[in-house]
C-alpha cells in the first residue's frame, strides 16, 4: 500500500492567539511494505504528522493519499497504536483484540478466528481471558499490536509504542515487531525520538526538525536484518543520524 | 480490626439505652429495648390497623424504586449528553448549579401544590433526590473518559453511537454507579421524609410518625431501625456490584 503525503502544513492557534506552525510543507512517499521511522526531538511535530495521517487531526493544507485515493479522517486501511494505556480495562484481552472487528460489525465466528490468529502471533494465547491490568507493559503493547492487526490494515501507525517500556523489554519488542512485520508485510510508520530504535528498525528514517516541523533529511538504512547494535556500520549510521539531530537542536538554540 | 471489636460500641450503646429507659421509666419518652424488639420480631403483625412492618417497608421500597428509576432515566442520558458536549453543558449547567443545593424536602410544598396528596408527590420528591447526584457523577465520568480510548475507537472507524455504547458508557460506568449509590441513598432519605406528608397513610415514614401520634414510640424506633437496615442492605448490594464489575477502575494504569 503506497502512502503519499503532499505539501502538508499544520498551524495551531496558541494560548495567546498567536499562530504556531507545527508542520511546514511536508512531502513524503512511502512504498508498500516499507518500515519508516519518523525521528526527531520533542516538539518537532512527528506525532502531529502521524495523527494527521491517522485522521485524528486535520491538516491546515496539503493532502494525504493511499494508493491515489484521498484520505480524510480515519481510514479503514490504517490502524493506530498509541504509546500506552490504550487498551480498554473493562474488556478481556480477547475482547480488546476483537474491538475493531466489532466496530465493523464482523460476525462473531470470524472475530473469534481473528482473535485466535493474532493472539498466537503475539504469543499471548494463554492470556485470552485476562484483563489488561493483569499484564505487564510489554504484553499490553503486544495486545495493542494484535488489536490493530486484527482488522487487517495495510498500514500500521505507531506513536512511540515502546516509549514507556524499560530498555530490555523495549529491545525485545523491537525484535518481535520486526518478526511480525516480516510475517504480515504491513507498511509501518513508526514515531520515535530514539535514534537507536530508528536505526534498528527502519528501512528509511525521516528526520524532522522542530518548529516549524520540516523534513531535514531522509536516510535509507541498508543494513541487513537482524541488525547488530554493536557493529561498526550500525554505530556509524547512528553517529551520523545523531549529528543531524544535534545540528537541528543547535540551530534551535541559536534562535 | 477483629470482628468482635466492632461489636463493643453497639453493645455499650444498647446497654446505656436500656439503663436510661429504666431510669426515665416513661415509654412515651424512651421505650425499653424489649418493647422495640417485640415489634421488630413480629414483622408480619398488623400495627394498630396500619399494616405490618413488612407491608409498610414494601410500600416504601416500591415508591423509592419508582422515583429512583425515573430519576436515573432522566439523569443518565442528560449527563452523557452534557459530558459529551461543552455547548450543552454550558447551556444547562447554570440551572443545575442553582437547583442542586435545594434539598429534596424543600420541594415538599410545591409537590403538594402540583400533585396534591398521593403517590405522584412522593415520587416527585424521590426523583429530585436521586436526579442530581446521578447527573453530576455521570457528567464527571463521561468527561474523564481517557482521550486515548476515544481516539482508539475513532481510528477503528467508530460512529458516535458505537463510541457511546462501546467506549464512553462502559468507561464512565464506575462513576455513574457511584452516582447511583449516592442517589439511592438520598432517594431513600427522601421517601421517608415524603411519607410524612399530611394525608399519607402507608410507608415507613408514615409509620414512624404514626407511632409518635398514638404514643407508641417503640413502633417509631422499630421503624427507624428497619429504615436503617434496608438502606444499609441496598448500599451493600450496590457495593458488591461495584466490586464485581468495576474493579478495573484505578487499576487501568
Question: What do these coordinates show?
Answer:
The complex is a heterodimer of chains A (255) and B (253). The radius of gyration of chain A is 19 Å and the shape is globular. With 255 residues, chain A is α/β, with parallel strands linked by helices. Chain A has helices at residues 46-53, 93-97, 99-103, 108-121, 137-150, 167-184, 195-201, 232-254; strands at residues 3-13, 19-30, 35-39, 61-66, 69-70, 78-81, 155-159, 187-192, 204-209, 214-220. In chain A, helix 4 (108-121) crosses helix 5 (137-150) and helix 7 packs across helix 8. Chain A has 8 helices and 10 strands. In chain A, strands 6-7-8-3-9-10 form a 6-stranded mixed sheet, with helices on both faces. A 4-stranded antiparallel sheet of chain A has the order 2-1-4-5, covered by helices on one side. Chain A is 37% helix and 25% strand. Chain A has 2 domains: 3-77 and 157-254, Rossmann fold; 85-152, no CATH class. Chain B is mainly alpha-helical. Chain B has one domain: MetI-like (MetI-like fold), CATH 1.10.3720.10. Chain B is globular and about 75 Å long.
Topology:
The complex is a heterodimer of chains A (255) and B (253).
Chain A: E1 3-13, E2 19-30, E3 35-39, H1 46-53, E4 61-66, E5 69-70, E6 78-81, H2 93-97, H3 99-103, H4 108-121, H5 137-150, E7 155-159, H6 167-184, E8 187-192, H7 195-201, E9 204-209, E10 214-220, H8 232-254
Parallel strand pairs in A: 3-8, 3-9, 6-7, 7-8
Antiparallel strand pairs in A: 1-2, 1-4, 4-5, 9-10
Helix pairs in contact in A: 4-5, 7-8
Chain B: H1 5-24, H2 33-40, H3 53-84, H4 86-99, H5 108-115, H6 119-143, H7 147-155, H8 160-194, H9 204-213, H10 217-245
Helix pairs in contact in B: 2-10, 3-4, 3-6, 3-8, 5-6, 6-8, 8-10, 9-10
Amino acid at each position: 500500500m503506497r502512502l503519499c503525503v503532499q505539501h502538508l502544513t499544520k498551524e495551531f492557534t496558541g494560548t495567546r492567539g498567536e499562530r504556531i506552525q507545527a508542520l511546514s510543507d511536508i512531502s513524503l512517499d512511502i512504498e508498500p511494505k516499507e518500515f519508516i521511522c519518523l525521528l526527531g526531538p520533542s516538539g518537532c511535530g512527528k506525532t502531529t504528522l502521524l495523527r494527521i495521517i491517522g485522521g485524528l487531526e486535520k491538516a491546515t493544507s496539503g493532502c494525504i493519499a493511499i494508493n491515489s485515493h484521498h484520505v480524510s479522517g480515519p481510514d479503514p486501511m490504517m490502524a493506530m497504536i498509541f504509546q500506552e494505556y490504550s487498551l480498554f480495562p473493562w474488556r478481556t484481552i480477547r475482547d480488546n483484540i476483537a474491538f475493531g472487528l466489532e466496530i465493523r460489525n464482523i460476525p462473531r465466528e470470524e472475530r473469534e478466528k481473528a482473535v485466535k490468529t493474532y493472539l498466537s502471533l503475539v504469543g499471548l494465547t494463554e492470556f485470552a481471558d485476562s484483563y489488561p491490568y493483569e499484564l505487564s507493559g510489554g504484553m499490553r503493547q503486544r495486545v495493542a499490536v494484535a488489536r490493530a492487526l486484527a482488522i487487517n490494515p495495510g498500514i500500521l501507525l505507531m506513536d512511540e509504542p515502546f516509549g514507556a517500556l524499560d530498555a530490555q523489554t523495549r529491545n525485545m519488542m523491537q525484535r518481535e515487531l520486526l518478526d511480525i512485520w516480516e510475517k504480515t508485510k504491513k507498511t509501518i510508520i513508526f514515531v520515535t525520538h530514539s535514534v537507536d530504535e530508528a536505526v534498528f528498525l527502519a528501512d528509511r528514517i525521516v528526520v524532522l526538525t522542530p518548529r516549524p516541523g520540516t523534513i531535514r533529511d531522509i536516510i535509507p538504512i541498508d543494513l541487513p536484518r537482524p541488525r547488530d547494535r554493536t557493529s561498526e556500520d550500525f554505530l556509524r549510521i547512528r553517529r551520523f543520524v545523531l549529528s543531524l539531530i544535534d545540528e537541528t537542536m543547535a540551530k534551535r538554540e541559536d534562535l | 480490626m477483629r470482628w468482635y471489636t466492632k461489636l463493643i460500641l453497639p453493645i455499650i450503646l444498647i446497654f446505656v439505652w436500656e439503663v436510661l429507659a429504666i431510669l426515665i421509666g416513661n415509654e412515651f419518652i424512651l421505650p425499653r429495648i424489649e418493647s422495640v424488639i417485640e415489634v421488630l420480631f413480629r414483622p408480619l403483625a398488623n400495627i394498630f390497623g396500619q399494616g405490618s412492618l413488612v407491608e409498610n417497608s414494601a410500600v416504601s421500597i416500591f415508591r423509592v424504586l419508582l422515583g429512583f428509576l425515573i430519576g436515573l432515566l432522566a439523569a443518565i442520558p442528560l449527563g452523557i449528553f452534557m459530558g459529551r458536549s461543552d455547548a450543552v453543558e454550558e447551556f444547562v449547567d447554570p440551572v443545575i448549579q442553582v437547583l442542586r443545593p435545594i434539598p429534596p424536602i424543600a420541594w415538599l410544598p410545591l409537590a403538594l401544590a402540583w400533585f396534591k396528596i398521593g403517590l405522584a408527590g412522593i415520587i416527585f420528591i424521590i426523583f429530585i433526590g436521586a436526579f442530581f447526584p446521578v447527573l453530576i457523577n455521570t457528567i464527571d465520568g463521561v468527561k474523564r473518559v481517557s482521550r486515548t480510548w476515544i481516539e482508539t475507537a475513532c481510528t477503528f472507524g467508530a460512529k458516535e453511537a458505537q463510541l457511546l455504547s462501546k467506549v464512553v458508557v462502559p468507561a464512565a460506568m464506575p462513576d455513574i454507579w457511584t452516582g447511583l449509590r449516592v442517589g439511592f441513598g438520598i432517594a431513600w432519605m427522601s421517601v421517608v421524609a415524603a411519607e410524612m406528608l399530611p394525608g399519607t397513610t402507608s410507608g415507613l415514614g408514615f409509620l414512624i410518625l404514626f407511632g409518635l401520634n398514638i404514643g407508641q414510640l417503640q413502633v417509631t424506633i422499630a421503624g427507624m431501625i428497619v429504615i436503617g437496615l434496608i438502606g444499609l442492605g441496598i448500599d451493600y448490594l450496590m457495593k458488591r456490584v461495584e466490586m464485581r464489575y468495576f474493579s478495573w477502575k484505578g487499576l487501568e494504569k
